[in-house]
């Protein structure tokens, strides 16, 4: 999540908050497990922004637009500082402002520009209904629904799939055929919107730890897509059906990190997530967490047989 106001105002914020490279939007050759043929998939990059007003959001969206395929408006960050700044989950109570933000960005970047919204469910589902409808009527390209309220924690509270299903139904009963197809003759095209056609797509999020979870959550809620955060951090090959992070994924991640000069702190943190399952003891995990330099991390990976 990038704070739109700072990003749009200060070059320093832009330098520190956003970087990308040609490979992030490159073409990937996927070997699907369930199909017999290889698929070619272009990586889509979406920049998530937090804002409390429409115009800085549109400014930030415009600045970042040459480098990404779309922007996502954060309406779910539950942290107290975010709520006080009137960003993130604060927007769950401001459906009209959310609609205005989407319209303003689309007004600036064109109707076909992909503007999505990530929400949490509300304890009062009528609010969720209003928010979803407002967002879609304003032209939201898709909605990601985290099945917890802003008062609930990912660490201790279960995800409410029935509430996500409710939100997906709200989106369906809007009757809108994706953001592009809101008026007759305004034909939606694959190339422009990058959506999935049909009803405005929803994505379910929360506690997806395996590919089976993703399929089950989709079946339960009717969402077209599934998003995982902690699951993917722990196992980036989750959606390939791998039960644990494969060694090849670690090797490839380290290669990319070196090639693109990922800051050491991020390299370290991501490896800690990925390798947590494989640590033989708590002591080993603690030892790994104390490694401070790229050289010591690489030594550890070499000794453990991840890189040569
Ligand atoms: C390290 C970390 C960083 C996150 N940062 C963001 C963020 O910037 N924007 C956002 O919408 N959600 C963020 N989240 C929340 C996740 O997107 C997701 O909604 C939440 O973790 C529940 O999904 P999960 O059970 O798959 O982890 C973050 C989560 C984690 C663990």
UniProtKB/TrEMBL annotation:
Coiled coil: none
Cofactor requirement: FMN
Keywords carried by this UniProt record: Flavoprotein, FMN, mRNA processing, Oxidoreductase, tRNA processing
Any one GO molecular-function label of the UniProt entry: flavin adenine dinucleotide binding
tRNA processing found in the keyword field: yes
Catalytic activity, as annotated: a 5,6-dihydrouridine in mRNA + NAD(+) = a uridine in mRNA + NADH + H(+); a 5,6-dihydrouridine in mRNA + NADP(+) = a uridine in mRNA + NADPH + H(+)
One of the GO BP terms on file: mRNA processing
Region (Disordered) location: 1-22
A Pfam cross-reference name: Dus
CDD domains linked: DUS_like_FMN
Domain DUS-like FMN-binding: residue ranges: 1-164, 201-278
This protein's name: DUS-like FMN-binding domain-containing protein
């Amino acid at each position: 999540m990038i704070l739109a106001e700072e990003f749009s105002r200060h070059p320093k914020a832009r330098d520190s908050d956003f970087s990308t490279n040609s490979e992030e939007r490159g073409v990937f050759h996927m070997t699907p497990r369930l199909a017999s043929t290889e698929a070619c998939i272009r990586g889509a990059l979406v920049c998530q922004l937090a804002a409390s007003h429409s115009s800085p959001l549109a400014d930030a969206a415009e600045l970042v637009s040459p480098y990404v395929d779309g922007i996502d408006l954060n309406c779910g960050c539950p942290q107290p500082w975010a709520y006080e700044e009137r960003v993130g989950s604060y927007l769950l109570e401001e459906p009209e402002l959310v609609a205005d933000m989407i319209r303003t960005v689309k007004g600036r970047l064109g109707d076909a520009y992909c503007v999505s919204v990530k929400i949490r469910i509300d304890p009062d589902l009528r609010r969720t209904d209003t928010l979803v409808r407002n967002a879609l009527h304003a032209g939201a390209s898709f909605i990601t629904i985290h099945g917890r309220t802003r008062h609930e924690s990912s660490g201790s509270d279960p995800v409410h799939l029935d509430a996500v299903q409710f939100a997906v139904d709200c989106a369906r009963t809007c009757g809108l055929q994706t953001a592009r197809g809101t008026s007759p003759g305004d034909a939606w095209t694959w190339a422009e919107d990058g959506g999935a056609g049909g009803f405005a797509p929803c994505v379910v999020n929360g506690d997806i730890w395996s590919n089976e979870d993703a399929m089950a959550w989709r079946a339960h809620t009717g969402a077209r897509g599934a998003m995982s955060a902690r699951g993917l951090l722990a196992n980036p090959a989750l959606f390939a059906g791998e039960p644990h992070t494969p060694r090849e994924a670690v090797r490839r991640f380290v290669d990319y990190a070196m090639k693109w000069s990922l800051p050491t702190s991020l390299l370290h943190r991501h490896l800690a997530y990925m390798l947590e399952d494989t640590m033989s003891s708590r002591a080993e995990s603690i030892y790994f967490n104390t490694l401070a330099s790229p050289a010591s991390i690489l030594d550890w990976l070499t000794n453990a047989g991840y890189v040569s």
